[in-house]
Design a protein that fits this description.
Length: 135
């Protein structure tokens, strides 16, 4: 018996849906953190409108672990002390990933600010050339 493959369009649609969900959850987390919340999954459910089961899916779980909202599965299920050094190494790797993502986001924001400053500069010169008043 041969295995049937999923159509490419379905695979692409699923990937788009996953990415949209990840973006929705990430933006909700950032927004709630900016408001000073100590974020819980209940808050994210309210903010995103997604069901509770979505937050158990692996791709969303990874985002929750990156932001420190939930712990990785292996931490919750392994009470053994000998794995503690591995746990710390994994936690450090997750935090490094989080820091790297924040640095990238920061660079993107700086770039956007530069573009906006340039547009403002050009608009101010256009208004001055027309003889308009800048408020």
């Amino acid at each position: 018996m041969t295995k049937r493959k999923l159509p490419k369009s379905l695979i692409e649609k699923q990937a788009r849906t996953r990415n949209n969900t990840i973006e929705m959850v990430t933006s909700a987390i950032i927004e709630l953190e900016a408001q000073g919340y100590r974020i819980k999954i209940r808050d994210l459910i309210e903010a995103t409108g997604l069901s509770r089961s979505v937050f158990a899916k692996p791709h969303i779980r990874k985002v929750l672990v990156e932001y420190g909202i939930s712990k990785p599965d292996w931490i919750e299920s392994s009470p053994a002390r000998k794995k503690e050094s591995r746990d710390i190494a994994t936690l450090l790797a997750e935090k490094d990933g989080y820091i790297q993502r924040l640095l990238t986001e920061n660079e993107q924001m700086k770039y956007e600010i530069e573009l906006l400053r340039g547009k403002i500069h050009l608009l101010m010169h256009q208004v001055a050339a027309v003889g308009g008043e800048i408020l």
